[in-house]
Design brief:
Number of strands: 4
Strand content: 5-15%
Structural class: mainly alpha
Shape: extended
Radius of gyration: 31 Å
Distance between the termini: 49 Å
Helix content: 40-55%
């Protein structure tokens, strides 16, 4: 369903009295954006409106209306043709539509060589973070940092730790230890996206 069709359907339901807006949509504040990023790992700028289904009002005029009764069907006045020779069975089933193969998702910059600061930052993360396992390769960490949008050419490992500490203090949360992280790779993806979003809105001065 397209956005225009969904918008028209909502407007029609509101006009019929079947839908009511409880809370309109709005833009998130800075703290709410950071909290949303920490929760689901994506960048969220707005909150969707909250709607509820309602029971439309029934008028008295609608209660007095009666539906027309159907007339009885007389088979003698409408003879049915039950000659089985008219229908011809299909000799073979209809061909199925060929399914298109989905193309692999193209990630911009995935095939380009990584910069030296990015390689150094990834190596430092693997060697210094206690909750990252040893089997997680440095190339995989480089790909995670690159896809998060964090500017490794501008910010160092110390800047990254400072950003994490600032965000954790603003959200009143403590960083997880090695035994508390069940999925270290996914946790690193979320932490890098938070750092990239914070550095975008609050760039550090050298």
């Amino acid at each position: 369903m397209s956005k225009i069709t969904a918008r028209r359907a909502r407007a029609l339901m509101e006009a019929l009295g079947c839908l009511a807006t409880v809370e309109p949509g709005r833009y998130l504040t800075r703290v709410e954006r950071l909290a949303a990023t920490a929760r689901h790992g994506g960048q969220q700028l707005r909150a969707a409106s909250v709607r509820a289904l309602t029971m439309p009002e029934i008028h008295d005029s609608a209660l007095n209306e009666h539906l027309a009764t159907a007339t009885r069907f007389n088979p003698t006045t409408h003879p049915l043709n039950s000659n089985p020779r008219r229908g011809k069975p299909h000799s073979e089933p209809a061909p199925r539509a060929r399914q298109r193969q989905k193309r692999a998702k193209f990630v911009p910059g995935a095939d380009q060589p990584r910069s030296l600061p990015l390689q150094r930052l990834a190596a430092r993360l693997v060697s210094s973070l206690p909750w990252l396992p040893n089997e997680l390769s440095t190339l995989r960490v480089q790909r995670i940092v690159h896809r998060s949008g964090f500017d490794a050419d501008r910010y160092s490992y110390a800047d990254l730790l400072h950003i994490w500490q600032t965000v954790d203090a603003g959200l009143d949360q403590t960083p997880k230890n090695a035994g508390d992280v069940t999925d270290p790779e996914a946790y690193l993806v979320v932490r890098m996206k938070i750092a990239a979003a914070y550095a975008l809105w609050h760039p550090l001065t050298p």
